[in-house]
């Protein structure tokens, strides 16, 4: 597009919708981080999110000769509705996607330079669950559960009645909780179970893998047809353990770095200095075992991680 989006600025302080004077896109810059976070959690891909944010800027720039009383509410409404349109297009295109589709991972380390990426990031496991919702249900769930908008505010954003929004919110929450009951684990516990899994996987230790995996574990592998990966979701401890051990045995010398991805425990794998894969681990309640493994091998989805994460000095061999 010809009109560039102003550079990202960070500011979510102050009361919601406090009118401020606009100076060459200042209002947009103030709220860009919020817009990015909402849209990413609706879409799950950074490129599509950037497109929607760009479209929102163009829509905003077109009304700069008008007085907007509540810039934040106006911008969020534009962004959410652009995102709904993009979501419907994306879901149609994914019908031809090769193998399981996973959201694009985003680095959420404390020193991540792009604050718009790491703010309000829903876990990758949750993003997978949100894929089972309708576009409207997902929009309502994200706005309500991740960003604490009330039903009246969401109704204004979507052009629906508060009663309709309450119904959408109830159905979305029921579907999400049925697939992913909520529980909290501290980072230390998350890291311990992640390291246990990686130690077992790197060593190809089948017995150790069986011990660290939950009986109901599921494993997703997203290669997008560009790298070899399982073409379906693998379920069950024995199947997942054997697949992980087999893949580890076939890898050449590699190195692994632990990182935070979408706010949760993850790891990136380098081969020959090139980022080859990223994995996110979903600990089971209690934190003793892993119940979900989300492996991303599609190079298109690893570009942002590859630019931000460097390989460790040490190399490992299976």
Overview of the structural elements:
- With 318 residues, the chain is α+β, with helices and mostly antiparallel strands.
- The chain has helices at 26-43, 46-61, 71-93, 115-118, 124-130, 135-146, 151-158, 162-179, 187-203, 206-212, 237-250, 303-308; strands spanning 213-222, 234-235, 255-261, 264-271, 274-283, 290-296.
- Strands 2-1-6-5-4-3 form a six-stranded mixed β-sheet.
- Strand 4 (264-271) and strand 5 (274-283) form a beta hairpin.
- 38% of the residues are buried.
Key attributes of the depicted protein:
single chain; alpha+beta; 12 helices; 6 strands; 47% helix; globular
Secondary-structure blueprint:
Elements (H helix, E strand, L loop, with lengths): L25 H18 L2 H16 L9 H23 L21 H4 L5 H7 L4 H12 L4 H8 L3 H18 L7 H17 L2 H7 E10 L11 E2 L1 H14 L4 E7 L2 E8 L2 E10 L6 E7 L6 H6 L10
Parallel strand pairs: 1-6
Antiparallel strand pairs: 1-2, 3-4, 4-5, 5-6
Question: Can you give me a brief rundown of this structure?
Answer:
With 318 residues, the chain is an alpha+beta fold. The protein has helices at 26-43, 46-61, 71-93, 115-118, 124-130, 135-146, 151-158, 162-179, 187-203, 206-212, 237-250, 303-308; strands at residues 213-222, 234-235, 255-261, 264-271, 274-283, 290-296.
Indicate the low-confidence ranges by residue numbers.
1-5, 7-24
Cα-to-Cα separation, first versus last residue: 47 Å
Count the beta strands: 6
**Residue share in helix:** 40-55%
Determine Rg (CA atoms, Å): 21 Å
Strand content: 5-15%
Q: Major sheet: size, sense and barrel closure? A: 6 strands, mixed
Q: What is the string of helix and strand elements?
A: HHHHHHHHHHEEHEEEEH
Going across the biggest sheet, name each strand in turn: 2-1-6-5-4-3
Question: Given the C-alpha coordinates, what overall shape results?
Answer: globular
Overall mean pLDDT stands at 87
Q: Provide a count of the helices.
A: 12
Structural class: alpha+beta
